[in-house]
Specification:
heterodimer; A: 372 residues; mainly alpha; globular; B: 126 residues; 5 helices; flat
């Protein structure tokens, strides 16, 4: 018999009222199996809507935030005209994108050209489904969390390569190749740092990883393992920045050299999908950093009972998103502060510096686990 | 099990949203006549010449090969790392010493591979 187990709080509610509603059905088709299947489907729909709302809803906020951060870094004001301090600007941009013409230039491989944005968008949604946003707020609490994230992250490269190759444009092709080479290179250090986290916590389940960091601030992964934890966090930050193709590692779309990189030939909503994928990846990578290093949904308790009770009164989701937005702010500041390295510098930085350092980190982590 | 079913929904969710957005764009989008200049590949002012699928550096391919080795290495290390704490505490049938020796040998082979690639100049990007 198919009995779905649903872990999140929405699931509890659904499980409670689906049998109640089922009583109104004809007796002939009432059954436990049907109830559980309906409960499962309703739960799935709610999860899908929630993740879509978080992912797609955060993109306009992030674009606005990025414009403001960028403007203030460069001593400008940024968008100011539409709404209060330009808050409606991004909504106007979304509408503009919707009404742009969707067309493909001649000589384009049509199937691959239209498939690329589809593939690019798979990874961020999948990762969002695995991240625990609150003590019980997780879509899929699976044991294969970390391996799945490593596996799914590889999908983005495929989409970018497809888009660049099919565009029938030399800029696109070169941009895609550079981007592919960069992303696969930094994926290794990305995976290795996640391995380090797995080794310290002894679990690949993201919920277990979060729960192992409960307690005070000093129990968070970044401080739990003295010094090494912090170095691991910095390494994760660097490799995830490169994974996302964000500046300073944005040689793939260095506009002075390659115009737009792999999405030069895209217009309208398919182009918007590449943009959306980039910003959702920003959210999911920050969420991953929060889960693995910054204690996930745990409040930043300091060990003083009087303060901690007040901190714990705030729901975990709020803490989670506060940390996520702090991480996003860090990514943005890095983007607008550092200059872009050359291609050869970027590749040798990964293979000759990050990878050996990661291997050493694994060994140090192993010694730490063995000794303590 | 049901969680993996939900995950399989999410596997197609992103693709579905992108497909829906493309269809919406096709429906709502402004349309103009397809002229020769509009259909030409983007170029900064001049006309493009030759095929866009040019030959590219073999370096990309070599990096892809190296990536394959190290990514699979990460995959192989994962089960060991996930149980490393347990093994070290002696909660499993495996002997900690044997596991550590295995790990050292495994990593040594990999590091020597990386050193070889480095010495051969594979990591140099010209």
């Amino acid at each position: 018999m198919f009995v779905p187990s649903i872990t999140n709080p929405i699931g509890d509610v659904v499980r409670e009222w689906v049998p109640k509603l089922a009583e109104y059905l004809p007796v002939a088709i009432q059954s436990e199996t049907l109830n559980s299947i309906v409960a499962f489907l309703v739960n799935a729909v709610i999860c899908v809507i929630a993740v879509c709302a978080v992912n797609i809803g955060s993109a306009p906020i992030l674009i606005y935030m990025e414009r403001k951060v960028c403007a203030h870094v460069q001593c400008r004001l940024g968008p100011m005209r539409l709404g209060w301090h330009g808050t409606i600007q991004t909504i106007a941009d979304v509408l503009k994108m919707l009404f742009k013409e969707v067309y493909n230039p001649g000589g384009v491989d049509k199937i691959m050209y239209y498939m690329a944005p589809l593939i690019v968008l798979i990874a961020p949604f999948m990762v969002a489904a695995l991240i625990p946003f609150g003590p019980t707020l997780v879509v899929a609490d699976v044991d294969m969390g970390i391996p799945l994230i490593i596996a799914v992250n590889g999908f983005g490269v495929l989409g970018i390569l497809l888009g660049g190759w099919s565009s029938n444009n030399k800029y696109s092709l070169l941009g895609a190749l550079r981007s592919g080479a960069q992303m696969i290179s930094y994926e290794i250090s990305f995976a290795m740092i996640l391995l380090f986290v797995v080794m310290i916590t002894g679990s690949t389940n993201l919920m277990d990883i979060t729960q192992s960091q409960s307690g005070t601030v000093l129990d968070w992964m970044i401080f739990k393992v003295p010094v090494i934890g912090f170095i691991a966090f910095i390494l994760f930050f660097i490799s995830s920045t490169a994974e996302m193709n964000r500046a300073p590692f944005d040689i793939a779309e260095a506009e002075q050299e390659l115009t737009g990189g792999y999405h030069t030939e895209y217009t309208g909503t398919p182009f918007a999908m590449f943009y959306l994928a980039e910003y959702i990846a920003l959210v999911t990578n920050s969420a991953l950093a929060t889960t693995c290093f910054l204690g996930g949904f745990h409040a930043p308790c300091i060990g003083v009972a009087a303060v901690d009770t007040y901190l714990n009164m705030v729901p975990g989701v709020v803490w989670f998103f506060a940390k996520v937005y702090f991480m996003i702010w860090c990514y943005m500041m890095v983007r607008w502060t550092f200059v872009r390295p050359r291609v050869d510098q970027l590749m040798s930085f990964e293979w000759k510096f990050l990878l050996p350092v990661n291997l050493v980190m694994l060994v140090i982590g192993a010694i730490y686990v063995a000794l303590f | 099990m049901s969680e993996y079913i939900i995950l399989s929904i999410f596997l197609f969710l992103g693709a579905f949203i992108a497909a829906a957005a493309t269809v919406v764009g096709l429906l709502l989008g402004y349309r103009t006549k397809k002229t020769k200049n509009k259909m030409a590949p983007y170029e900064c002012g001049m006309e493009t010449f030759g095929n866009a699928r040019i030959q590219f550096k073999v370096g990309y391919y070599l990096f892809a090969l190296l990536f394959l080795v190290f990514d699979i290495e990460a995959l192989f290390l994962l089960p060991v790392m996930a149980n490393f704490k347990e093994i070290m505490a002696g909660h499993t049938v495996l002997s900690p010493v044997v596991v550590v020796i295995d790990l050292v040998v495994f990593l040594a082979i990999l590091v020597s591979g990386l050193a070889y690639a480095w010495k051969k100049g594979l990591l140099k990007w010209e």
